Structure formats: C-alpha cells, structure tokens
Amino acid sequence: MQFTASLLALALAFTGTQAAALEERQAVGVVFAQFFAGTGCEGNFVEDTAFVQDGTGACVPNTITTPFQSIRVITNTATRTLHLYSRSNCTVNAGPGLPAGNVITYAPGETGCKHPVGGIGSSQFDL
User: Fold this and answer.
1) Which of 15, 64, 121, 122 has the smallest number of Cβ neighbours within 10 A?
2) Is the residue at 33 inside a domain?
3) Is residue 22 part of a domain?
4) Residue 107 lies in a domain
5) What is the pTM of this model?
6) DSSP string over the chain
7) What total number of domains does the chain contain?
8) What's the chain's Rg over C-alpha atoms?
9) In degrees rounded to 5, what are phi and psi of residue 119?
C-alpha cells in the first residue's frame, strides 16, 4: 500500500512538472500599441494593434495604412524584444545608393511613447 501511494505521488509530481513546462512554452507575449497623428503620442488617435510574440521570430509586414507620427505601447507581456522597422523586410540595410532604414525597439515589459522615424514597415521579435 505504501509503495502504491509513493508511486502515485511520484506520477502526480511528474505530471504537474510536465504540465507547467508545456504551459510555459505555450505562453504568448503580446505588445498592445496605439498610434497617434502627432509626435509625442499627442494629437488624434489613429489606430491600435497587437504585436503577438509567436516564438517564430518571423518578419511581419505592417498592416496599418493610416499615417501616424508616434506609437505608445500600453501593455507589454512579451518575453523577447520587439523590433519595429521602417523597411518592410525587417532590416535597416539598403541596397547601393538607397537610404538605410530605421528601427525602434521595445524590451520585454517596456511601455511608453516613441517616434518611429520613417514609419513602421515591419515588425519582428527576437528568438
């Protein structure tokens, strides 16, 4: 009887550990941002969006078409840094004779207002 109880306790402990590890891997970080017409996150509110940290590090094209001058991150539950690029290919590199792009970053948990020079063409989380 005591052996069975010990075995059952061990099995339950293992199952709990596995469930916690699975839950941690499946946790999704989200950066919720608002876009404004004026610099300094002032002026008319233009749009809002959520940047979802899916764990792939994929380059995501910007879908906001309304012109904006500043971005305010309201909520940031990401565990990786978010990069917002002015170019559509998640890089600041340009071909010969072309101007380089710009990037702004939000570290995990960072919120606040920033002015993305050149707008936002794409976004990407670190792996």
Assistant:
1) 15
2) yes
3) no
4) yes
5) 0.76
6) -HHHHHHHHHHHHHHHHHHHHHHHHH--EEEEEEEESSGGG-S-EEEEEEEEE-SS---EE----S--SEEEEEEE--SS-EEEESSTTS-S---TTS----EEEE-TT--EEE--TT---EEEE--
7) 1
8) 21
9) 80, -165
CATH code at position 55: 2.60.20
Whether residue 42 is contained in a domain is answered as yes
Structural domain of residue 115, as residue ranges? 28-125
Whether 105 and 81 have beta carbons less than 8 Å apart is answered as yes
The two tokens of residue 63 are 């879908």
Q: Name the token pair of 26.
A: 């499946």
Contact present, 102 and 117 (Cβ < 8 Å):
yes
Tens digit of pLDDT at every position of the chain (127 positions): 454 455 445 455 555 544 444 444 456 899 999 999 999 999 899 999 999 999 999 999 998 888 999 999 999 999 999 999 999 999 988 777 777 889 999 999 999 999 998 889 999 999 8
Rounded CA-CA distance 21/95 in Å is 44
Cα 34 to Cα 19: distance, rounded to the nearest angstrom? 35
Task: Read off the tokens for 122.
Answer: 């794409």
